[in-house]
Specification:
alpha/beta, Rossmann fold, 11 helices, disordered N terminus, AB hydrolase-1 domain-containing protein
């Protein structure tokens, strides 16, 4: 499977002018927009919640599905967008599955109906979980055969699945390059992140000096900020503050205690995590060491000693790892995971 887009592929997913979607055709990831009201009664002072003009990719927009059509939903990393997920999703589109990839509110692809919506929604994990719940309800998805997360999008996958009242609504999960259940070495000064977020939201008077302090932080407390573009550093810092590790820890334990099929991958190119943290997180998700497979640079995925595709972790050791570079191998792993769900349903 190729890891780059052809010219025609680029044209297919190029956003059209005037907020219009590309022409709808079943089996293709069509760019769509839908109004989603979310976080109703979430904040006491804003009981009506917020509304977003939500961008999403969908192979079967507004189409009634056969009961046996697998449904896949993918959640992107931040910074990032719905387009980042295309390399691992396209093969499933070719198989006729319903594939959906929404864009989290970001003021670019998914925008608030007014500026207060954009500023009220901070992007904390509990807000994102509520947003995804309301988005799926809006477009009529009641079950998900495989819920995929990339990077910090895994937080939403874990917390959304762990807190579902209907435990059968999500049949399998695939956290790809998760951030873990606690701050890694790159965020060892995490209390300072929370303090930054508190001051930022407290008053506009603090905003200018806080922006200036980011560059100092990038060279002292948080060198990881230097791995992001300068224009993204403020967004990233505020995003860090919304990880809600205390909830993520307990939700991850809940997933680890469940019988839901799950695939986890991690890589040494993720600046937010370290190997020790990922090994600990793998254990928290209930994946035994015998089900962990390590892949060196240029190697193909090999079956671990215990070839249990319903419970697997793959560690990519390539320090130049990207989702796009390894999209072919990731897709094969995801197909193996999905077979467990299909086998159980029929």
């Amino acid at each position: 499977m190729g890891s780059t887009f052809t010219e025609g592929f680029k044209k297919l997913f190029k956003k059209s002018k005037g907020n219009e979607s590309v022409s709808a055709k079943i089996g293709e990831l069509n760019l769509r927009y839908v109004f989603v009201r979310t976080c109703v009664d979430f904040w006491t002072d804003i009981p009506v919640g917020v509304m977003f003009d939500t961008a999403y990719l969908d192979t079967h927009p507004g189409i009634s599905l056969k009961p046996d059509t697998p449904v896949i939903v993918a959640l992107h990393d931040t910074p990032g967008s719905l387009y980042d997920m295309i390399p691992i999703l396209q093969p499933f589109c070719n198989l006729g599955y319903r594939v959906v990839a929404p864009n989290f509110p970001d003021k670019i692809h998914t925008r608030g109906m007014n500026r207060y919506d954009d500023t009220t929604f901070s992007g904390k994990t509990d807000e994102r979980v509520t947003f995804i719940h309301d988005f799926l309800q809006t477009i009529g998805i009641e079950r998900i055969d495989m819920l995929i997360g990339q990077g910090s999008g895994c937080n939403t996958v874990i917390s959304y699945t762990a807190n579902l009242l209907n435990k059968h609504a999500v049949r399998s999960i695939a956290p790809l390059s998760p951030i873990g259940h606690k701050p890694g070495k790159a965020l060892k000064e995490y209390p300072a992140v929370l303090e930054f977020d508190m001051l930022w939201n407290k008053s506009t008077l603090f905003k200018y000096p806080l922006r200036a302090s980011l560059e100092i932080s990038a060279f002292h407390k948080f060198p990881v900020l230097r791995t992001y573009r300068q224009s993204d550093r403020l967004k990233v810092m505020l995003h860090f503050a919304g990880f809600q590790y205390e909830w993520l820890n307990s939700d991850s334990f809940g997933i680890g205690s469940s019988s839901i099929p799950r695939l986890m991958t991690y890589n040494l190119n993720n600046n937010l995590v370290d190997k020790d943290l990922m090994e600990e997180y793998t254990d928290l998700l209930g994946i035994p060491e015998t089900n962990v497979c390590h892949i060196g640079t240029g190697e193909q995925v090999k079956s671990p000693e215990n070839n249990n595709t319903a419970l697997k972790c793959v560690a990519f050791e390539d320090k130049e790892y990207t989702l796009n570079k390894y999209s072919g191998q990731l897709t094969l792993l995801l197909q193996d995971l999905l077979k467990n769900v299909i086998k159980k349903r029929w």
